């Protein structure tokens, strides 16, 4: 079902007659468990009008490079095929996103879109709401529980968000009904050819300083990875996810980031293939509570991607210790080139550069060491965020901003005071070896 809390009218009015319904795809680039898609299908059927879809591809999107664009296009390739099987043509149009969507909406009687939580998407939707002359509706599909239904303010951390989410979870963690057949738009321009994503990336001329990662994007690969995870890895996920020397993680983060996989699909599949236990609990905690905590942070903190967005206590304690001597000092360029004295840090950075991902057990160590080895906390924050967004397939994601913030004390509590970190949590290399064979991990990647 499409719960009414998921639906927000951005421009009111009555749909026109004789036109078509336009689905603007932003963050939910999939056909399964896509509330915006099913809402658009339902409305097109109710109005007796054709349905068409559009995606605005901006080659100048901030911080995106060839690694990100190829993964994105692999998803659009699958999406075009999946929508076509339901009679819905998808146009991929290159240019400024709101301009391209506005042009696609000419003659439409209703525009429906999904919802992301970052500043660019919010600005695009606000732009379109001002310019469109027909009703414009947003349907939230990338959170299991709509974020404003859970909370209307920035939460302190998981401990305050968790009980609010759990009270609502059973109402929203239900299968989504697939609506019936729809009339296809008879002469919809499909725009960019996305059948060969690698070729299309080269033709777009985007920043190619970072090659594609190891994994392929798209809904097909996302569902295959989900099936492998819930049938093979979920029972031992609680412990298996902690060791970077084994394949115990879900590896679903990038699919969720690009909208190739719905969190609803993942949660329902995990429940179906599990009788409960610590593996399921750990997975749902990470994918629902922690992920939606990051949405809450980006939605309610206008400075979510800047040092100023960190809590006052963390900035205060870090600034108190900003002049403390550093055991090592590295520039961003030296870090990017993996020229540090620490084999564990070098291994983690190498894994990210080569594959487009970093094991979660190393992410915080990697970030904490940048804070320890950089001249000022502000410079450390900016360097950590830049490196993350440059190489990670799931960079420029709400989880990224919250995760980098956590390095600097966001969603955490004050700890015992120490040099450089003040009361922000510290991580040492000795802690790695207590959890897994860090030497083996370093040998693998260096």
TrEMBL record:
Keywords: DNA damage, DNA repair, DNA-binding, FAD, Flavoprotein, Lyase. It comes from the Bacteria. It holds the Pfam family DNA_photolyase. The keyword Calcium does not apply. Residues 19-147 form the Photolyase/cryptochrome alpha/beta domain. SUPFAM superfamilies: Cryptochrome/photolyase FAD-binding domain, Cryptochrome/photolyase, N-terminal domain. Its EC number is 4.1.99.3. The keyword RNA-binding does not apply. It catalyses: cyclobutadipyrimidine (in DNA) = 2 pyrimidine residues (in DNA). One of its GO terms (biological process) is photoreactive repair. It is an enzyme of class 4 (lyase). GO terms for molecular function: deoxyribodipyrimidine photo-lyase activity; DNA binding. Its cofactor is FAD. Belongs to the DNA photolyase class-2 family. This is Deoxyribodipyrimidine photo-lyase. The lineage of its organism: Bacteria, Thermotogati, Deinococcota, Deinococci, Deinococcales.
């Amino acid at each position: 079902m499409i719960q009414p809390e998921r639906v927000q009218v951005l421009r009111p009015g009555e749909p026109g007659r004789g036109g078509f319904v336009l689905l603007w795809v932003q963050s939910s680039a999939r056909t399964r468990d896509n509330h915006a898609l099913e809402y658009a299908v339902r409305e097109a059927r109710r109005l007796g009008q054709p349905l068409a879809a559009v995606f605005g591809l901006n080659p100048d999107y901030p911080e995106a490079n060839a690694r990100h664009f190829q993964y994105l296009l692999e998803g659009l390739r699958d999406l075009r095929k999946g929508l076509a099987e339901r009679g819905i043509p998808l146009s991929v149009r290159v240019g400024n996103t709101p301009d391209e969507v506005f042009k696609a909406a000419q003659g439409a009687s209703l525009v429906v879109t999904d919802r992301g939580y970052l500043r660019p998407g919010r600005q695009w939707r606000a732009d379109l709401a001002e310019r469109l002359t027909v009703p414009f509706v947003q349907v939230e599909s990338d959170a299991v529980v709509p974020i404003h239904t859970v909370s209307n303010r920035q939460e302190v951390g998981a401990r305050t968000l968790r009980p609010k989410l759990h009270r609502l979870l059973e109402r929203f963690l239900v299968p989504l009904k697939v609506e019936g057949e729809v009339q296809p738009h008879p002469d919809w321009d499909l725009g960019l050819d996305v059948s060969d994503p690698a070729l299309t990336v080269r033709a777009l001329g985007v920043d190619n300083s970072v090659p594609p990662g190891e994994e392929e994007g798209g809904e097909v690969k996302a569902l295959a990875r989900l099936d492998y995870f819930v049938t093979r890895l979920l029972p031992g996920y609680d412990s298996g996810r902690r060791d970077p020397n084994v394949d115990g993680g879900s590896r679903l983060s990038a699919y969720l980031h690009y909208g190739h996989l719905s969190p609803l699909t993942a949660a329902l599949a995990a429940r179906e293939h599990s009788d409960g236990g610590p593996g399921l609990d750990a997975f749902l905690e990470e994918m629902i509570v922690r992920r939606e905590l990051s949405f809450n942070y980006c939605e309610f903190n206008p400075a979510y991607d800047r040092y100023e967005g960190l809590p006052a206590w963390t900035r205060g304690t870090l600034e108190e210790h900003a002049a403390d001597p550093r055991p090592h000092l590295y520039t961003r360029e030296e870090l990017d080139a993996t020229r540090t004295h620490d084999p564990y840090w070098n291994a983690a950075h190498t894994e990210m550069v080569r594959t487009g991902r970093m094991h979660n057990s190393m992410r915080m160590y990697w970030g904490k060491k940048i804070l320890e080895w950089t001249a000022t906390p502000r410079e450390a924050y900016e360097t950590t965020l830049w490196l993350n967004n440059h190489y990670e397939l799931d960079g420029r994601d709400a989880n990224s901003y919250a995760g980098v913030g956590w390095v600097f004390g966001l969603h955490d509590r004050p700890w015992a005071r120490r040099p450089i970190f003040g009361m922000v949590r510290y991580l040492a290399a000795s802690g790695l070896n207590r959890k897994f064979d860090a030497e083996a991990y370093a040998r693998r990647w260096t």
